[in-house]
Amino acid sequence: SNGKRGGFADTRGTLFHDYARIISEVHPKAFIFENVKGMLVHDNGNTWKTIKNTFRELNYNIYIRKDENGKEKAVLNALEYGIPQQRERIFLVGIRNDLKLKSEFQFPLPFDLNKTNKDFLDEIVPAKYYLGKKGFEFVTSHPTRAQVGREIQKCQKANQQFNWNGDFIFEKLSNRHTPEILQRAYVGEWNGELGVIRQYTPRECLRLMGFPDDFKMVVSRAQSYKQSGNSIVVDVLMEIIKEINKVI
What we know:
By secondary structure, this protein is of the alpha+beta class. Helices cover 28% and strands 17% of the residues. A hairpin with a 2-residue loop joins strand 7 (188-190) and strand 8 (193-199).
């Protein structure tokens, strides 16, 4: 492009324009903008510049995490904030520039991960989630398309759309495997151990996104996987909101 700085007017016809329009109409004290990290490199970085310019045009100071050299490090990873999931997303915080802040806004500091995937799983899972022979053989022999038994969840494909379908759980054969499960599940060998493989349940997926167990699921199983996958990891959001509350 001719180097002009894009802004609000240039975003017409995009979903982002609606986001910005809502901000310009509601003019909240603060907002959090989240997106996939591919946005940083989209159109050689111009898209990201336009987004930042738009927020400034709307009278917001914008905050993006920086590294120790002061370089933008906009990507936050869920595993930095207590959730064992390799989920990288860009975050930007906007705070209205007419507000007098108690102190400078800082992004929450990462902390050590003390949980693994297993801490989020149910002990007893219905038989319908277990894989038969074909499924077992497929997921144990296609490492690029299926991951089994991770301690830290990967749950997304290269296109960055969320996908729980590529992740599976291996369970060593034990007395929790009822006759009903064993009727359906194929018992096979994985990493030298005998056991069965199952999918994640929608509840486990929600848990891995930081949702409490009393969060109601009111949609179909397929929709539930999709919705949890398109959500923001609640723990990351809460840590950012805590920091916003400290300064406003």
